[in-house]
Amino acid sequence: MNIRTIFAAVVLLLTGIVPGHAESITVTHWGSAFYGAPYAVAMEKGFFKAHGVDITGILTSNGGGTSVRNTLAGDLPFGEVALPAAIQAINAGQPLVIIGGGTDSVGDIMWIAKKGSPMHSIKDIVGKKIGFTAPGSVTNMLILMAMKAQGIDPASVKLIPAGGIGANLSAVLNGAIDSGMTGEPVWSENEDKVQAVFYVRDVLPANMMQTVAITTTDYAKEGAAKLRGIIAARREGVEFIVAHPDEAAEITAKAFNGDPALYKKVFKNLLSFNYWSDGRLDYDGMNRMIEGLQIVGQQKGPVDWTKVVDPSFLPADLKPHS
User: Fold this and answer.
1) Which of 101, 199, 235, 282 could covalently link to 110 via disulfide, CB atoms 3.0 to 4.6 Å apart?
2) Based on the number of CB atoms within 10 Å of its own CB, is 174 exposed (0-12), middle (13-18) or buried (19 or more)?
3) CA 182: distance to chain centroid?
4) DSSP state of 35
5) What pTM did the predictor assign?
6) Structural fold of domain 3-105+208-318
């Protein structure tokens, strides 16, 4: 246990805040993508307990609205979900509020095809069946934005919600779709079976906020201490990844039942483009992601962030300056 963790534990004892019963939170694509790595580290290193929260389980989903619904139904209504899905839910009247940043890059997302396919660039998706995860998900937005950036008529491509990252891979390999989305570690694990069609970072700005932390409006009032604790512990998880990437990779591999050697390679790659936000909200990156919702007609004009974001749960140095 490091000095910061010990200090945090002492503060909690002095203030009378002690961890409650074990609880679960929601993280999109837990176990198959790396949005959840800071949470895996925070659980393993005791950061959650040091901040007065006993998080021992993670609920997962295939992205999109499922993550939001899991958050609403959870015993502790906190989730890291796709930003577009959060906005869609809020626009539909769900009692949710954004309270922190998650992943602030799309540099890891790519589209793949079966080895030997004639598809080698985004231009090759015309006339093909192209998979993404779920309606309203980040990958749904990104494929539409990528097509717009390249002047590809959406009517010329058949988009198919194929499920999670593993489901997209299976659909590519069995020929159900011509190309599907993927990311690490699935890409590195299957380079002998699939080939890259295009990386999102090659056609769109990499600085786009994929995921955000959300809670319900009621829990934002009654569970403020726990929410601050989760965000602070996740931040420590990110800091640990940056300082000790190999150990963090081993921790995450254990949580995900993955290959530690492969995860070390992946973490080095993800850190090269600042994949994980420390919790701060990148409004420029958020606005870029909202463009995807505008493309599909599910968002008219810009989002008024003052109405859907509550930054009060962030550590003082991460709060936006007024």
Assistant:
1) 199
2) exposed
3) 13
4) G
5) 0.82
6) D-Maltodextrin-Binding Protein; domain 2 (3.40.190)
